[in-house]
Amino acid sequence: MPGITIGDTVPNLEVETTHGKLKFHDYFKNGWTILFSHPADFTPVCTTELGKMAAYLPEFEKRAVKLLGLSCDDVKSHNEWIKDVEAYTPGCKVTYPIVADPEREMIKQLNMVDPDEKDSSGNQVPSRALHIVGPDNKIKLSFLYPASTGRNMDEVMRALDSLQNASHHNNKIATPANWKPGDPVVISPSVTNQEANQMFPQGFETQKLPSGKEYLRFTHVN
Fold first, then answer.
1. CB 155 within 8 A of CB 141
2. Which end of the chain has the least Cβ crowding within 10 Å, N or C?
3. Where does the record place the Thioredoxin domain (predicted)?
4. 14-151: which CATH topology?
C-alpha cells in the first residue's frame, strides 16, 4: 500500500481535534502514542472500539502511552458521537482527542485509506488502522483491519508491551510467538554468548536444535 509504514516518521501535521488544534509531534512529546482511525462516526464496530480504548486507558497510562483517534467526520460530529460511546461503555470516559479529517487528506498521508470501503457519496473512508508511534516519532508497528473486523485490544496491549520491552533493552531482545508479559524472551542473534552473559546475569537457556546452531536463546527480563 502507498504511504508511510513501519520505520517511517509520522508527518508533523497540524490538526483539528475534539481537544482543539494540535501538532502531532507536540502531542507525541518524545513518548509513545497509539494513533488509530475508524471508518466513520455513529457506526457499530467503531463505537465498541472507542469504548474499549477508553476502558483500557488506565493500562495505557501506566505505560505512559497517549491515544489519538481519527476519522473523516468533523469535530462537532465527534463530540456528539462520544456521548454514544460513553453510554455504550458505562463508567468510561473518552478523554483522548479525536482528529477530524473532513477533506480526507490526512488519511492518505497516514496510510489509513480503506482500499474497498466508500461512503454514501462514493468517497474514500479511513481503514480500521492503528499505528504505534515510538518516542522518535516513527511508526514501530501497524495493524490494518477491514471495516467488518473490530480490533482486539488485548493484542494491541500485548504488542505494545513487546515493543516497549525490546526498546528498554536496546532491541537486543525479541518476543517469540504467543508471548505475553512474564514469559521468556529471545536474545537477538547479534548478541554473542559472552555479551549475553554480561547483559543477562540472570542467565539464559539455549535451545538444542538439529542444525546445531545456537541461535534460539531464552531469558527472563523485567
1. no
2. C
3. 4-165
4. Glutaredoxin (3.40.30)
* Burial call 105-119: b when 16+ CB within 10 Å, e when fewer: ebbeebbbbbeebee
CATH architecture type of domain 169-219: 2-Layer Sandwich (3.30)
Under 8 Å between Cβ of 107 and 70: yes
Q: Cα–Cα distance between 70 and 62 in angstroms, integer?
A: 23
72 is a catalytic site residue: no
Cell (9 digits) for 65: 502511552
- Break the chain into its structural domains and give their ranges: 14-151, 169-219
Answer whether 14-151 and 169-219 agree in fold.
no
Q: By percentage, how much of the chain surpasses pLDDT 70?
A: 99
Strand partners, 124: 118
Per-residue pLDDT, 63: 97
Positive or negative: CA dihedral 29, 34, 35, 41: negative
Q: Residue 56: in which H helix or E strand, if any?
A: none
Positive or negative CA dihedral for 67, 20, 99, 18? Answer: positive
% residues pLDDT > 90 (the chain): 82
pLDDT bucket at 2, cuts 50 / 70 / 90: low
- Please report the beta strands in 127-172, taking only residues with DSSP state E, as ranges in sequence order: 128-133, 139-145
Alpha helix segments (H runs only) across the chain: 24-28, 44-55, 57-62, 75-88, 106-109, 153-168, 193-199
- Stated as kind and residue range, the H or E segment containing 113 is strand 113-118
Say if strands 185-187 and 217-219 run parallel, antiparallel, or are unpaired: antiparallel
